[in-house]
C-alpha cells in the first residue's frame, strides 16, 4: 500500500501524472454493461484530497462527509472517475486516486445512478460504510489539464 509520502516522495509530481496503477485498473475493468460499467469490478476508485488521505491513514479508515450526509462513500470505476472529478473538483490540484480492492471491503456496495447529466444507464458504486485504509492498494495523484478539467483515464 502506498502512503501520501510514497506518492509525493520528492514533493514534485509531474503535471498530468496518473501512474501505471491507473492504467492497470483500466485494463482490469474493460467491458461491462450499459454505460460501459462492469457491475462487479475487482478494483474501484475513490477521489479525495491528499490531506484527507493522510488523516485517514492515521485513523485506519476514511470517513468523508458524504458518509454522514448521504450514508455512503462515493466510489467510481476508472472509466467514470473523471465525471465526478469535473463536477465536484474542477481545477483542484491536491487530489489523489485511491485504488480500492473491492474484496477487502466489509460494508455493502450498491450500484446506483449518479446525476441526470451522467450518461444514460450509468451507475456508480456506493460504499455503505467507511473506507478501510487496508482496502486501498495504491494511491496516485490526479491532476487536471491546463483548463482545470480532468481527462478520462486511458
In short:
With 154 residues, the chain is α+β, with helices and mostly antiparallel strands.
Q: Largest sheet, order of strands side by side?
A: 1-4-8
CATH topology descriptor: ADP-ribosylation fold
Main sheet specs: 3 strands, antiparallel
End-to-end distance: 22 Å
Overall geometric form:
globular
Based on CA atoms alone, the radius of gyration comes out at 14 Å
Count of separate structural domains: 1
Secondary-structure class: alpha+beta
Note the topology.
Blueprint: H1 4-8, H2 19-28, E1 43-49, H3 50-59, E2 61-62, H4 65-69, E3 73-74, H5 82-89, E4 95-101, E5 109-113, E6 123-127, E7 131-132, E8 136-142
Antiparallel strand pairs: 1-4, 2-7, 3-6, 4-8, 5-6
What labels describe this entry?
3-stranded antiparallel beta sheet, ADP-ribosylation fold, 154 residues
Q: How would you describe the overall organization of this protein?
A:
This protein has 154 residues and is an alpha+beta fold. The chain has one domain: Protein of unknown function DUF952 (ADP-ribosylation fold, Alpha-Beta Barrel), CATH 3.20.170.20. Helices cover 25% and strands 24% of the residues. It is built from five helices and eight strands; from the N terminus they run H-H-E-H-E-H-E-H-E-E-E-E-E. The two termini are 22 Å apart.
Amino acid at each position: 500500500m502506498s502512503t501520501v509520502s510514497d506518492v509525493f516522495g520528492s514533493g514534485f509530481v509531474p503535471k498530468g501524472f496518473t501512474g501505471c496503477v491507473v492504467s492497470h485498473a483500466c485494463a482490469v475493468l474493460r467491458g461491462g454493461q450499459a454505460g460501459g460499467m462492469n457491475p462487479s469490478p475487482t478494483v474501484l476508485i475513490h477521489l479525495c484530497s491528499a490531506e484527507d488521505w493522510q488523516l485517514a491513514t492515521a485513523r485506519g479508515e476514511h470517513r468523508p462527509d458524504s458518509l454522514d450526509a448521504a450514508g455512503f462513500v462515493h466510489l467510481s470505476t476508472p472509466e467514470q472517475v473523471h465525471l465526478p472529478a469535473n463536477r465536484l473538483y474542477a481545477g483542484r490540484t491536491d487530489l489523489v486516486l485511491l485504488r480500492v480492492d473491492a474484496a477487502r471491503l466489509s460494508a455493502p456496495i450498491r450500484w446506483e445512478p449518479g446525476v441526470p447529466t451522467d450518461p444514460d444507464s450509468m451507475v456508480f458504486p456506493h460504499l455503505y460504510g467507511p473506507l478501510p485504509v487496508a482496502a486501498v492498494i495504491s494511491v496516485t495523484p490526479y491532476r487536471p489539464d491546463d483548463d482545470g478539467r480532468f481527462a478520462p483515464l486511458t
